[in-house]
Amino acid sequence: MTRLPLRIFAFVLAALFGAETQAAVFIVGTGSGCTHSTISAALTAAHDSGGIATVRITRSLAYSGQALIVNATQELTIEGGYATCDQASPDTTNTVISASGSTSGHVFNIFASTSVVIHLRRLEIRDGLGAGPGISGGGIYFAGDGVLEITDSLVTNNTSAYGGGIAAYGTGTNAALKIGANTIISHNSAGLGGGVYAKDIQVSMMAAGSSILLNQAPGSNSANGYGGGLYLEADDQPLYAFIGSGAPLFGAIYGNTAQYGGGVAVKSTGSNTAELQLFATDPNLPAYVGFNSASVKGGGIYATNAKANVRAWNAVLDNNLAPNGAAAYMASSSKLYVNYAEMPAAAVACPVGTACARITNNYADGNPGSIIYGESGTTIQFGDPPETVLADARGGAMILGNTGTSVFGGSANTAIYRSVVGSNTTSQEVIKVSDKPLYLVDSTIAGNTIGSGSAIVRAANSDVTIQRSILWQPGSTSLSQSGGSLTVQTSDASENTSLGGILAAETYDPRFVDPAHNDYSLRAGSVLIDYASVYATNDRDAVGNRRNVDLPNRDFYGKRDIGALERQAVQPLVLNSDIDTDLRLWDVETSGVSTRDSTKSVSGPSGSGSVHITRTNVAESEATRGLSQCIHLPANGTYALNGWGRGTSTGPIVNPIAGDHAELYWEYRQDSNENCTQGSVFASGTLTLSSTSSWARPAQPVLIPVNQLFAPYSPTIKIYLVAREKGSVVGGGAQPNATAVNTTDAWFDGITLDYIGDTIFKDGFE
Length: 766
Prior knowledge:
Blueprint: H1 4-16, E1 24-28, H2 39-48, E2 53-58, E3 68-72, E4 76-82, E5 95-98, E6 108-112, E7 117-121, E8 123-126, E9 129-130, E10 140-144, E11 147-151, E12 154-156, E13 159-162, E14 166-170, E15 176-179, E16 184-186, E17 189-192, E18 196-199, E19 202-205, E20 211-213, E21 216-217, E22 230-234, E23 239-243, E24 253-254, E25 257-260, E26 264-268, E27 274-279, E28 287-290, E29 293-297, E30 301-304, E31 308-313, E32 315-318, E33 321-322, E34 328-331, E35 335-338, E36 358-360, E37 363-364, E38 370-374, E39 379-382, E40 398-400, E41 403-404, E42 406-410, E43 413-417, E44 420-422, E45 425-426, E46 431-434, E47 438-441, E48 444-446, E49 449-450, E50 457-460, E51 464-467, E52 470-472, E53 479-482, E54 486-489, E55 491-493, E56 505-506, E57 512-514, E58 519-522, E59 587-588, E60 594-597, E61 610-615, E62 623-632, E63 637-646, E64 661-669, E65 681-690, E66 702-706, E67 716-724, E68 729-730, E69 739-740, E70 744-755, H3 759-762
Parallel strand pairs: 1-2, 2-4, 3-6, 4-7, 5-8, 6-10, 7-11, 8-12, 9-13, 10-14, 11-15, 12-16, 13-17, 14-18, 15-19, 16-20, 18-22, 19-23, 20-24, 21-25, 22-26, 23-27, 24-28, 25-29, 26-30, 27-31, 28-32, 30-34, 31-35, 32-36, 33-37, 34-38, 35-39, 36-40, 38-42, 39-43, 40-44, 41-45, 42-46, 43-47, ...
Antiparallel strand pairs: 57-58, 59-62, 60-61, 61-70, 62-67, 63-66, 63-70, 64-65, 64-67, 68-69
């Protein structure tokens, strides 16, 4: 990827922050300190001054019917945020400039000479009406070889044929449009680029608090209706657009509508590149393109022509809607890259272990209706190949919760590296490709709801390569292929005959942590951990964690996990031990006796809660099994079981009766099934956690030795949370008529099963 546009952009950014120490100031308004009573007169004076100038527009006048012309040959600042002409410092209330009543079409008509920078600050630019054929820029029309920077402003309720809010045309290599901090472009409408239309110009929106939202490009034919929020076109020279995290509430591109590219449309009409780059500028806020819709193609993004590229790093395409290409539609040899190649210098890395690149909850309501669709000749790639070594640690993408005919569709050159495709709903195959190669490497496809009779992958005349991946959809054929070659290596599938049988793919249950809540990482006892040989030494998994982490277990061919997510440590073996939000991952043993008590907690974050087991009419010493968890063991060795428990208080001082007990009961099986119910119990026991109303954790855990040859065995420990009735009393003191009601109450929190010898991992060291 050429770095020339970034160098140009760096020059532009430097120009934006030039000093204004020599600026002449012209103040518009009425009353003390004002120099002009109209904006036009002040602009003329600023131009005639021949130097750096500032036009300050106060709120002491109303500004409607405006059709302002700016022809800048020197740096110029046009700013609001002042109530009166003699106010020393700006406030946070923007000055409204409206074209209401004007017939010219633009609020601002701006031309900037080469390298000249024009700043618009603290303005509300509205009511521009340039709807006639060929009219551009309802709110702002900008052209030239200079820079337009808009900061702390609102551009709203404008209409035009091109660029309802802003139309920006570059006439040279220095031209740039910079949407600065706290700038909202909303509720504008145009045939092309409802919010912003940009052609042959560098575009950026990287500062905090800015968003392009709720604009529309409805269109009336196939020649318009592109780019509801943002339209990018390269013709006479390259165009690069740099879009960052955006505003915390809405993200970068939100709630826009169009025929093609509800959020963004990217087009190259000649030999020059048109490229959209989406990336995080806040490590805790991915670049967000969400809730956009297209009536034809490309709910989030639409791109067309061979020189049109979309590159996204740590970006989210969420809740977008279209008949086809709900998240992205790639046409006419365009290219989509997600978390591929080096990030731009202005991008920030995603925190390791966090899924920052996400395609989620998009909906394609057509047939064919793919979430991500590529026409013949296009390229779609998620993640870097594993042999790629990058300075920034990141993974592939999480593609979750989408609904359509398929998730990936069309005839694109498709490569899916280190990504999770899970919890989607498709009426046909999850991946449906034809005529071009498909690579599925270090990835996981699982937990999707697939149309009856459909395979996980359908390929027609496509060469298919599947390496170190999981395809787990019980009841579905893994691959339906007609024509093309097939290469499958070191993979795992719920059905493997279509992949070439046992020599190509195993059929082990992956034992995902929590697929019902989109956690497709592997449990410590998964056979797929340390299953594959080391392929690359410095690559990352889907969320940026290191690959080839060697855990103490049975290594089949090496120390690399199969699938998109590499397990980093044996712990935790007990899942949801702190009962943080609910009782997930615990199985019910006795119906109706276990609830989460948010008022009592001893382990985990404050207020994380605990398990409360309560039952009435219980016999003395009777044990009530409330919940259980089945744990598959990763290795031979000694396991230490412990936890926090809380029973009930003792009875009266005279003739005391002991309180109820919180206990752990455990069963060790040398060879069991997926839910720990098959095979003989080799060892078992009970650990009393507490018999009083105080939280307690035994000083000595139960030690469970496990020593055997694993393969082909599946050793398990099943843990039960048990409340034991020890009597309770109602009445006062030692009253002879006290009545026993036999209500059992016990609480549980922080249940742990430690693997002795794995303490370095338990403590968080790597």
